[in-house]
Amino acid sequence: MSDALEALVSAGIEATAADSFGPAAVDVPPGDWVAAHEVLRDAVGLTFFDFLSASDELTDGFRVVSHLADFWGGAHVEHLLVRTLIPRDQPTLATLSDLYAGANWHERETFEMFGITFEGHPNLVPLLLPDGFEGHPLRKEFILASRVAKPWPGAKEPGESDHAPAGGAPSRRRTLPPGVPDPETWGPRPPGTPDPDPLAPAHAAATPARPRRAGGPPGERRARRQSTPTDPPPPTDTPPPVAAE
Q1: Would you call 58 exposed, middle or buried from its count of C-beta atoms within 10 A (0-12, 13-18, 19+)?
Q2: Backbone angles phi, psi at 91, to 5 degrees
Q3: C-beta separation of 128 from 112 below 8 A
Q4: Beta 62-71 vs 25-27: how paired, if at all?
Q5: Can you give the pTM of this predicted structure?
Q6: pLDDT at 205
Q7: Distance (Å, rounded) from C-alpha 92 to C-alpha 119?
Q8: What is the fold, at CATH topology level, of the domain defined by 2-153?
Q9: Where does the secretion signal sit in this chain (predicted)?
Q10: In the 3-class helix/strand/coil scheme, how is the chain assigned residue by residue?
Q11: Fewer CB within a 10 Å sphere, N or C end of the chain?
């Protein structure tokens, strides 16, 4: 990881180390996307191209990620994730297909699923979806309309079960299937009504952080609870039992 970052910086690329739950990762500017991979391939030895994909970061744009590797020392493998962030209104990035032949297929899939254009790609055409498909399914504003048309078989609120007895407890709020927005943010609109924000359902689906309970940290509450003396038993009017002679 340190060798890769040093090589990128020495080549004049503004690369920074990035947090990652798996392999080491570096962030590079979109304009240096191809140059960074060329340095990593030729100067660092990351000659194996594993995959390329993206993630929808909502208003921040799309984060494109590639995974490179180097095999050496028997079964030992060096891994590196290369990431960049492109704007949502102009999702365009240069192709890696001239450096890594394996990028051809992955860029076609990412173009199809996210709507990201890879400039210079030799054959950027749909790959997996049927002819005539509209939209990009892995964008967070994409509506899974099939789940609107079909009954949702997932978890139900009390009183919504198909086997619930008549007169059961009514539901306080019906659970929407994943991928189905609230009707207030999607659906038919009367003439003249402003169009809804396409990212509103995705923002609404984000679960807020659970608030911490009042009363200090858990360790402090536990220590305080353990140090509290036990209350004496309440007095009673019942006389003590008399010992038998």
Answers
A1: middle
A2: -80, 85
A3: yes
A4: unpaired
A5: 0.67
A6: 63
A7: 7
A8: Beta Polymerase; domain 2 (3.30.460)
A9: none
A10: CHHHHHHHHHCCCCCEEECCCCCCEEECCHHHHHHHHHHHHHHHCCCEEEEEEEEECHHHCEEEEEEEEEECCCCCEEEEEEEEEECCCCCEEECCCCCCCCHHHHHHHHHHHHCCEEECCCCCCCCCCCCCCCCCCCCCCCCCHHHHHCCCCCCCCCCCCCCCCCCCCCCCCCCCCCCCCCCCCCCCCCCCCCCCCCCHHHHHHCCCCCCCCCCCCHHHHHHHHHHCCCCCCCCCCCCCCCCCC
A11: C
What are φ and ψ of residue 94, in 5° steps? Answer: -70, 150
What confidence score (pLDDT) does residue 210 get? 54
Q: Quick one: tokens of 134?
A: 């509209």
Token reading at 129:
């979806």
pLDDT in tens, 2-50: 799 999 999 999 999 988 777 899 999 999 999 999 999 999 999 999 9
Cα separation, 161 vs 91, whole angstroms: 44
**HSE value, Cβ hemisphere, 13 Å, CA-based, for 147:** 14
> What does the domain layout of the chain look like in residue ranges?
2-153
| b/e 178-215 (16+ beta carbons within 10 angstroms → b) | ebbbeeeebeeeeeeeeebeebebbeeeeeeeeeeeee
Q: What is the largest CA-CA distance in the chain?
A: 108
Predicted pLDDT of residue 9: 94
Identify the segments of the chain with pLDDT beneath 70.
Answer: 1, 73-74, 146-193, 195-196, 201, 204-245
